[in-house]
Write a structure and sequence with these properties.
single chain; 167 residues; alpha+beta; Aminopeptidase; 4-stranded antiparallel β-sheet; 34% helix
């Protein structure tokens, strides 16, 4: 398995919109911007470059996770933490499509995201998940995440907060 993280391309639109619909059932927003595919890709690039970042957001890299050219998931790598991210969202948000789960893709996505942040000078990466998300907690622990605490989150959920060292 060779999983790569890359910016979305024109050919990814159908797969990404399909994954957005699938993951909406889990309450997960795969695409974080509305609009045409061209507008979405432009917004992804602007946020990566730190241009015209919306209030409440930070500079970040939104990348698709692909295996053999097929989109299997995505990751948001936040280059810094604001108050919300420090308490609930973390440096990294990732998802794998239901059809591709239990193949090690989430673990590889998170490993690559941690390496990206390490290259940006981040010494430890905050990764969070819902307290009830046993699969995600296992992924975070596989990449070296150490549980700091469990805190109340939005929508009456509890969030597990893990720190992953980058050295």
């Amino acid at each position: 398995m060779v999983l790569t993280l890359r910016f979305p391309e024109p050919a990814d639109e159908v797969a990404c919109r399909h994954l957005h619909e699938q993951l909406a059932a889990d309450g997960f927003e795969f695409l974080q911007v509305d609009g045409s595919w061209e507008q979405i890709c432009a917004a992804v690039r602007r946020e990566h470059e730190g241009i015209d970042i919306a209030p409440g957001r930070v500079r970040s890299s939104w990348l698709v996770a692909a295996v053999d050219g097929e989109v299997v998931g995505r990751v948001s790598i936040r280059h810094a933490l604001n108050e919300f991210l420090l308490n609930e969202g973390g440096h990294v948000g990732y998802a794998v499509a239901p059809a591709y789960r239990r193949r090690g893709y989430a673990t590889e996505i998170l490993r690559l995201a941690v390496a990206d942040l390490a290259a940006r000078g981040v010494e430890r990466v905050l990764v969070t998940c819902d307290d009830t998300n046993v699969a995600s907690a296992g992924v975070i622990e596989k990449v070296g995440g150490v549980l700091e605490d469990i805190r109340p989150g939005r929508n009456h959920t509890l969030k597990r907060r893990y720190w992953v060292p980058t050295t």
